[in-house]
Design goal:
Chain A: InterPro entries: AAA+_ATPase (IPR003593), ABC_Ni/Peptide_Import (IPR050388), ABC_transporter-like_ATP-bd (IPR003439), ABC_transporter-like_CS (IPR017871), Oligopep_ABC_C (IPR013563), P-loop_NTPase (IPR027417). The complex is a heterotrimer. Chain A is of the alpha/beta class. Chain A is about 30% helix and about 25% strand. In chain A, the strands form 2 sheets. In chain A, strands 6-7-8-3-9-10-12-11 form an 8-stranded mixed β-sheet, with helices on both faces. Classes of the chains: A alpha/beta, B mainly alpha, C mainly alpha. Chains in contact: A-B, B-C. Chains A and B meet through helix 2 and helix 4 of A and helix 8 and helix 9 of B.
């Protein structure tokens, strides 16, 4: 058996529209080690959220995920929802982007949390509620016993996201998927939240997948990262390697679009153009219309994801050094 | 919660009062009276009769006398059924009307909610299409026509059920009336429920519930039903007065001894006392049931309680 | 009648959409709307059937050998008989059912038009005044509407019957006078948004009087909601009419309406089923068609994707 807790092989997600099909994710591969944090980075529409919703069996009705998602020896894809429910919430949990709408407005917080323990741990209601309160305390909610009786609308956004985190970690899952968990929050709250993620996942030995478009978040928490563009992974590797030595022009572009306090003088260098529509991906490399390093081959042929050693992979034909040339 | 309830009652009572007042004056302003008939009464008799019903008093005085009576619980004498007071007649019809109306209301609401959920869960599959058709019929075909057809089919051709009439305590006699009354109501509830359930199933919090591995049944039962019921419950108020309208027809079709028939008889005979009495009864009934609906609403939507 | 065709919901949603637009105009049938209406099969078929029923009701009587109150002593309670010219059969008085159904449909349609017109006129006037003057006038006027909404409508209709009993047209003027609440709400909402528009400002700056502004500038921009309202109100009134006639409170013999026909047909349907079935079919098709046309119009005039 491998030491990977989650191993994704050739994951594709397609959506059936009335007369066509749209591929949101194409042939994605990655492995997740126990206890590590993987950041999945990309613009909106790059397929990063859909890939993980597909793994969790949470796609919209017209969506379909193919490939393999091995949780240990079990393939989560193609499993009947009723069997999948034995793993969702227990071994693999997910936190969503918008804490304001992700909690049920008509149920008390403790009901929404304790039901997870009742279902997966077989606790009775009383024990489940006690554990719930303990967990609420751990995620930093003041007066947890009182707050447990509140309804979501009585709480602030940051508070609700803490509740979501508590909910996801109740069963001490092997894997926690966090889909842009800080985007909807104030900046000050964001930092606290990242801190919380770090401590708790370390405490529980949980592997974290952090889906984000914010490289600041990546720098703060992740060990490795995967950059996605147009439904495909275009570059993978350790966070430090990618930050200091990006090999894919898109990664470089992302780094240049991020404001940096240390380099206040440097002007931002955003990537030109818009993310591609998944229905009409350009021929060859999907990034070619926006790429400063694009040459003939990129227009004709799609670069495969090739290993560079030391856990790095990139999907780009351009071999020269990227830094020397200014992006677009 | 109690304060919320009190406030709702206090704001509803004036409406009942206004309704009765408006009815009172409209009726009195209408040409003709309860004692117009083909064979006029001798003048002195008529004068006596009018004095008995206070009709010889000035209009405003009549009104005050009537309201005074109502506050003391006396709805006055019936003007067409000479030996009965309005209260006595209502006491005869009320238990039946309540039984019919409430049975239909409860059954129809339950069926409507359930079928709406089924249609939403099986959206664009055959159970949904079938239900949409049944709902369409319920919404569009007038209840007296549905009533006549059901009566003809089950009561006359198949002879499964009594075609009409009423035997106290007999459930068989209630089946068709309740079915007719329920169909239209259930259809509307079902349509609303389908829409709001589809919306709820697409929300983020239902996705959260699914991500917890609760199982689809639990997701529906605990997470989706309550929020999806909110628009349905807010329709129950108007739905009630619609049901009431239906009960007038149903009592007529199946020859049932309820208040609805008294009301129509009274309207035709210009029995002022009876018309006002039944109006008041319906108003109070609607207010009472609306109050229940409001409380249910507050239970469903925690935010309402604080407003 | 609250919720009879769910008119309230439909119109409220429509009005909400209108008011969220940059340029909210209840614009009349534009090319775009006509194209969308033509593409809606259910609505087009309904429109066609509706036209057929209207012809049936208003032109049909000229082609039928019998009058609606004419008695054929030779055939009483006879099933459809093509040789005698009784295509729908005859009733218990030997009157031709086809002629009576035509007359009844005609009556139902006329009555619905009268009541709808009355309610549209009152609704527009009331809503436009409340919306245009705003402030306390608006608050009081809309409070009255809210209160009337809470009353059981049908009781008032029946009380009206007592007043106008023998005159069907007056009766439906009365019903129209109760129907206008929804219309008033929608018109008020529209007026509130319209009166902030430049063309109204311009008119006001040019010294136009409030009444002129309301009727020259605001009312013509309400075509969309009014058209939808009317198509949804007509079936509602037809149901109310047939309901009242069914209870014996509406149209009186020898005149007739679809409701009256069904009400006389229903108790004897075991023996003379045609007396129930033909008027029933016409009534149900009429209601279905009107509903689909109304839905189609709403979709066609839907301001969302303009």
């Amino acid at each position: 058996m491998s030491d990977y807790v989650l191993s994704i092989q050739d994951l594709s997600v397609t959506f059936a529209l009335h007369d066509t099909e749209v591929q949101a994710v194409r042939e994605m591969n990655f492995d997740l080690r126990a206890g590590e944090t993987l950041a999945v980075v990309g613009e909106s529409g790059s397929g990063k959220s859909q890939a993980f919703l597909g793994i969790m069996g949470l796609l919209a009705k017209n969506g379909r995920a193919t490939g393999k998602a091995m949780l240990g020896d079990v393939n989560l894809l193609g499993m009947a929802p009723s069997r999948l429910d034995a793993y969702r919430g227990k071994d693999i949990a997910m936190i969503f982007q918008d804490p304001m709408t992700s909690l049920n407005p008509s149920l008390k917080v403790k009901t929404q949390l304790s039901e997870v323990l009742v279902k997966h741990r077989g606790f009775d209601t009383r024990k489940a509620e006690m554990t719930t309160i303990e967990m609420l305390e751990r995620v930093g909610i003041p007066e947890p016993a009182k707050r447990a009786n509140a309804y979501p609308h009585e709480m602030s956004g940051g508070m609700r996201q803490r509740v979501m985190i508590a909910m996801a970690l109740l069963c001490q899952p092997k894997i926690l998927i966090a889909d842009e968990p800080t985007t909807a929050l104030d900046v000050t709250v964001q930092a606290q939240m990242l801190d919380l993620f770090k401590t708790l996942t370390e405490d529980f030995g949980t592997s974290l997948v952090m889906i984000t478009h914010d490289l600041g978040v990546v720098a703060g928490v992740a060990d490795r990262m995967m950059v996605m563009y147009g439904g495909r992974a275009v570059e993978k590797g350790k966070v430090d390697d990618l930050f200091y030595d990006p090999r894919h022009p898109y990664t470089l572009g992302l780094l240049h679009s991020t404001p940096h306090i240390a380099h206040r003088a440097a002007r931002l260098d955003p990537i030109q153009g818009l993310p591609p529509s998944l229905e009409h991906l350009p021929k060859g490399c999907s990034f070619n219309p926006r790429c400063a390093f694009c040459f003939d081959r990129c227009l004709e042929e799609r670069p495969p994801l090739t290993p560079l050693g030391d856990e790095r992979e990139k999907a780009c034909f351009f071999e020269g050094p990227l830094q020397s040339k200014k992006v677009a | 919660m109690l304060r919320y309830a009190t406030r709702r009652v206090l704001s509803a009572l004036p409406i009942a009062f206004i309704a009765v007042t408006v009815c009172f004056f409209i009726l009195r302003a209408a040409p003709g009276g309860p004692f117009d008939s083909d064979r006029p009464l001798p003048p002195e008799v008529l004068a006596n009769v009018r004095a008995y019903y206070n009709l010889d008093q000035p209009l405003f005085m009549q009104y005050l006398l009537y309201i005074g009576g109502v506050l003391r619980g006396d709805l006055g004498p019936s003007m067409s059924s000479y030996d009965f007071s309005v209260s006595e007649l209502m006491a005869i019809g009320m238990p039946f009307s309540l039984q019919l109306g409430l049975t239909a209301f409860v059954i129809a609401t339950t069926i409507g909610v359930l079928t709406g959920m089924i249609a939403a869960v099986y959206k664009n599959k055959w159970p949904d299409y079938l239900l949409v058709l049944v709902v369409m019929i319920g919404v569009i075909v007038p209840n007296f026509l549905i009533g006549a057809l059901l009566q003809l089919w089950f009561g006359v051709y198949l002879r499964w059920l009594p075609a009409g009439g009423w035997v106290p305590g007999s459930w068989a006699h209630l089946v068709l009336p309740v079915a007719v009354l329920s169909w239209a109501h259930a259809a509307r509830i079902s349509r609303l429920m389908r829409g709001s359930m589809i919306e709820t199933l697409g929300t983020n919090y239902v996705r959260t519930a699914r991500s917890k591995g609760l199982g689809e049944r639990m997701v529906l039962a605990r997470h989706a039903i309550k929020p999806a019921l909110i628009p349905v419950v807010s329709y129950l108020g108007p739905g009630l007065s619609y049901l009431l309208t239906g009960s007038l027809v149903v009592e007529q079709i199946f020859g049932l001894p309820g208040i609805g028939r008294y009301f129509i008889q009274a309207a035709l005979n210009r029995d002022y006392g009876m018309v006002l009495g039944t109006t008041l009864f319906y108003m109070l009934l609607i207010i009472a049931l609306n109050l229940i609906v409001d409380l249910v609403y507050a239970w469903l939507d925690p935010k309402v309680r604080y407003r | 009648m609250a919720g009879l065709t769910q008119k309230d919901e439909v119109l409220t949603r429509y009005a909400e959409k209108l008011s969220t637009l940059k340029a909210p105009k209840g614009r009349s049938l534009t090319d775009d709307a006509i194209r969308r209406m033509l593409a809606n099969k259910a609505a087009m078929v309904s429109l066609f059937v509706l036209a057929a029923i209207v012809l049936f009701a208003f032109v049909g009587p000229y082609f039928v050998p019998w009058g609606y109150s004419e008695v054929d002593w030779a055939s009483i309670r006879k099933p459809p008989d093509f040789e005698a010219g009784h295509f729908f059969g005859t009733d218990h008085n030997g009157r031709d059912l086809l002629a009576r159904t035509m007359f009844g449909t005609q009556m139902s349609l006329i009555v619905a038009l009268v009541a709808t017109t009355v309610s549209v006129v009152i609704g527009i006037a009331y809503g436009a005044i409340a919306g245009y003057f705003g402030g306390r006038v608006d608050a009081v006027m809309m409070r009255i509407v809210d209160m009337l909404y809470a009353l059981p409508y049908i009781l008032f209709v029946i009380i009206l019957v007592v007043i106008f009993g023998r005159n069907p047209i007056l009766l439906f003027v009365g019903i129209g006078a109760i129907e206008w609440l929804t219309m008033a709400r929608i018109v008020r909402g529209q007026t509130l948004t319209l009166k902030e528009k430049e063309f109204v400002e311009a008119a006001r700056a040019g010294g136009a009087k409030p009444w002129t502004i309301i009727f020259r500038h605001i009312v013509p921009n309400l075509t969309g909601p009014v058209v939808i309202y009317a198509t949804l109100t007509i079936p509602e009134i037809i149901i109310v009419e047939s309901f009242l006639s069914y209870l014996g409170l509406g149209i009186q013999e020898p005149q007739t309406s679809l409701g009256t026909l069904i009400s006389t047909g229903a108790p004897v349907a075991e023996v003379t089923p045609w007396m129930l079935i033909y008027p029933g079919i016409i009534l149900v098709s009429l209601l279905f068609c009107l509903t689909y046309v109304g839905d189609g119009l709403r979709d066609a005039l839907d301001p969302k994707d303009r």
